[in-house]
Amino acid sequence: MCGRYELKIEYEKLSSLLKKDLPVGFEKNYEQQELIKPSDPVLVLKNEGKTSTSFMLWGFSKWNQAPFSHSGFRPFNARAETVKDNRLFRESWRHKRCLLPATAFFEKGHRLFRKDSQAFWLAGIWNRWMSSEGSELETCCVLTTEPNQLVSPLHNRMPVIIPNGLEEDWIESIKDGYGLKKLEPLLNAWAPDDWLAEPITKSLISQLSLF
């Protein structure tokens, strides 16, 4: 499960992929984020014919489900084992995969991060909601998988991490069945060797509303 994460990195150190096609004013208004949670706007790398950076709401909406309505379920995670068959997610798995940059994620009072403190990519899928008036809003969720030895004492799920160098393979929008099959090994548990899990203080748990 991934329900809280952070992006604490200077703009200059963001991946060059995120700077290929930026929203207007992004560099000027960029801020590091200590806590990112469901329903927040999140920074996302996607591909609809070209690689671009976007802001989406974290919480997956169907095309006809208003993201701001109080009715309906808007999942912030999707299980990697069933994403290709789940009616809600399967079209996005085929055509709308995305990446969310992060520097740590949180589980049960612990902060999990790379030993080198570098940013990493959370694997996601996204969708576009359109109102009856024609306005558009993009929403996304993070894929989760079985936990590795580092995460399993804390939770029975963990986020799927896409290794550096495979970003554009993951987000490429046009994939045939063979291309999608080649992505499936990335959905498995990742090796914990280069990662750490550190407890955070009770005061920080309260401050960040972690559970």
What are the SSEs and their pairings?
Elements: E1 5-7, H1 26-29, E2 33-36, E3 41-47, E4 51-58, E5 77-79, H2 90-95, E6 97-102, E7 104-107, E8 110-114, E9 120-130, E10 136-145, E11 158-159, E12 161-162, H3 167-171, H4 177-183, E13 195-199, H5 202-208
Description:
The chain has 211 residues and is an alpha+beta fold. It has a single domain (5-208), classed as Alpha-Beta Complex (hypothetical protein yedk fold). It has five helices and 13 strands. Strands 3, 4, 5, 6, 9, 10, 11 and 12 form an eight-stranded mixed beta sheet that branches. Strands 2-1-7-8-13 form a five-stranded antiparallel beta sheet, with no helix packed on it. A hairpin with a 3-residue loop joins strand 3 (41-47) and strand 4. The longest helix has 7 residues, at 177-183. It is globular and about 45 Å long. The mean pLDDT is 90.
